[in-house]
Amino acid sequence: xxxxxxxxxxxxxxxxxxxxxxxxxxxxxxxxxxxxxxxxxxxxxxxxxxxxxxxxxxxxxxxxxxxxxxxxxxxxxxxxxxxxxxxxxxxxxxxxxxxxxxxxxxxxxxxxxxxxxxxxxxxxxxxxxxxxxxxxxxxxxxxxxxxxxxxxxxxxxxxxxxxxxxxxxxxxxxxxxxxxxxxxxxxxxxxxxxxxxxxxxxxxxxxxxxxxxxxxxxxxxxxxxxxxxxxxxxxxxxxxxxxxxxxxxxxxxxxxxxxxxxxxxxxxxxxxxxxxxxxxxxxxxxx
Amino acid sequence: xxxxxxxxxxxxxxxxxxxxxxxxxxxxxxxxxxxxxxxxxxxxxxxxxxxxxxxxxxxxxxxxxxxxxxxxxxxxxxxxxxxxxxxxxxxxxxxxxxxxxxxxxxxxxxxxxxxxxxxxxxxxxxxxxxxxxxxxxxxxxxxxxxxxxxxxxxxxxxxxxxxxxxxxxxxxxxxxxxxxxxxxxxxxxxxxxxxxxxxxxxxxxxxxxxxxxxxxxxxxxxxxxxxxxxxxxxxxxxxxxxxxxxxxxxxxxxxxxxxxxxxxxxxxxxxxxxxxxxxxxxxxxxx
Lengths: 287, 287
Description:
The structure is a homodimer.
Chain A: E1 8-10, E2 13-15, H1 23-27, E3 30-37, H2 45-58, H3 65-81, E4 87-94, E5 111-117, H4 123-127, E6 129-138, H5 153-159, E7 167-174, E8 179-182, E9 186-191, E10 195-199, H6 209-222, E11 226-229, E12 241-246, E13 250-259, E14 262-265, H7 269-282
Parallel strand pairs in A: 6-7, 6-13, 10-11
Antiparallel strand pairs in A: 1-2, 3-4, 4-5, 7-8, 9-10, 9-12, 12-13, 13-14
Helix pairs in contact in A: 6-7
């Protein structure tokens, strides 16, 4: 199949390479990682690659470390050559080239793509962001829940609900009005009764690398309990602290929540600061 | 954004064009049509393009006919030049190039891809196919239901449940065990009590062009009633006729259904033949 000459065009311009046969484009058959580039290195790279390999298997894609190395090495070399030390490195792994039809090729030869982009976080957002509620509801799909796969129309449609830069992100719920995540981050909240909680991702959502780090390392090191549970939409009005997290920005406190037409301010509070400090002490890149 | 030089590689080989920024690959932000090429022309092209434009809007992509024409014209010219008159033409429309993040670009400039592939239907399959039941359940998602979008992991995972060529396709159900479609076709079934019925696609499934043609034109021309309704899994064992349809193969009768370990034969019967004949009389390409 590879190096076949195909009959195809993009916007009327003939294309002869076989990239258009990639199952990533055809079906979103693949996964991605969005990783921080900090002082020329990629923090949490091992966690990213472990998650990638685990989840790839769930999509029928066998991925070993040796396949990913040339891609990572090449992008790091390119970045060094251009004197670039900070930003975001995105890894995309696809189900490779395929014949027409949903059936997997007899042997899936994954394609591994690395792609650099400039740092996007605005300085002001480091201090805290405003969130809004998305109307779009995530479907319940236990087979895909947790996986950072390439089927992201849910997020695209949710993110298209607003254009106002005042809101950096939006809360996303499932069809039972349970909180899942934001469009691009996981979420932790604190209430007096329940302590720190983060949504269960059994039926929807992405099991983020930063969420994993906080649950596995940071909260335990602080001896602060944290619960994974179903979080009904009503609970949010009771929360005393709220932060979002991902592996590019680390922890970002939420300082305002648009409810109806009112932007309700939220204090960052010492509880969030404690977690944030524990993270940045161990991983200064997320300062 | 366009013609930007990017820092990226595929499998360690540097890439400098900006194709990797396509939101079709990144998020499955796009749609596709799989169309029959018959004697050098594309039957039902108008229906395909109308559906494409309608559904693109639901994904925030404004598509007018003039954008699609160069792509269609170019692939038809290429095929004529190579003396190719039969096969499949796939159109892919994506959300175009984008910056990192789910947010749509201020102006979405769709990319339109046309891609030819050889006819795939085996002669034997024209006469009838065997189906099996897929275990994978389609999520309930009214916002995406009906759209032939690029988020197709559901179909990829369902199709990966079997390798035996004896079964051409599999029945797919939603999480309430209601019949939706097969992995790559819509479905019609006949029972004595209910007559011809086809599943409602309110929460899942693709609203196929051939399904639309049958419902709008072919059944009405025959004055044969057909109902769109919820179809529970139990009803299937009562059906007296069953066919699948899509716009590449037309109507394909189902002649066997794997239930447990037993391949239960199904007669094609005169009722299916009447519908099939009405289709092929008007559209000989689907003979």
